[in-house]
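Hi U.,

Before I forget, here's the chain from the pilot set. I'm dumping it here mostly so it's searchable later in email.
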Amino acid sequence: MVKPRLVFHPSPGRVLVAPSILSADFARLGEECRSVLAAGADLLHLDVMDGHFVPNLTMGPALCASLHQELPEALLDVHLMVQEPQRFIDGFAEAGAGNYTFHVEVAAEPAALAGRVRRSGMSAGLAINPPTPVERILPHVEHFDLILIMSVNPGFAGQSFIADVLEKARRIRPLLRPDQRLEIDGGVNAKTAPMCRAAGCDVLVAATAVFHADDYIEAVAAIRG
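Structure:
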């Protein structure tokens, strides 16, 4: 049975802050995630890597399921940096993921795959890496709930922000409906967030800028602006 689809855009126009758990202390993951949500974060971002599409290995559906059990009201925004995203749709849907984003670089038929994601009960996102021309993603924008622009080359937290990708945001933003979101991920912090918001991004993923901050409330507020 398909669970009710979560609405990714609870308040159109509101900038959402999505701490990436990649920079959390995994020994205290539940506690830290509960704390950033209490500090004002809107959702949690889970970076899933397979060691093929990107040179790193991270979490899978089991970790997602544990977080969903601990924080059942939290929207879990799963970002698949994997070579075969179609393999993991059912696993993450059953684990409680709310949004499922995969990469345009590996999707032969993005719209068809988005349909599979939605039928599983999740909303669908499409991501693009810094070196990939924006023209690669433009024909598919209408089929997704969220478009994710990577502002670092994916694989590891703590990288420097690539400002040139904001031109992609400026190209994509006018194509979006009010019920779609534009997300950016990589090097987002209090210094770079204003540029992201100005370019039209309304979901800001931040890893070290939140989880390594002394004060989560201040960190989230600074990123949201």
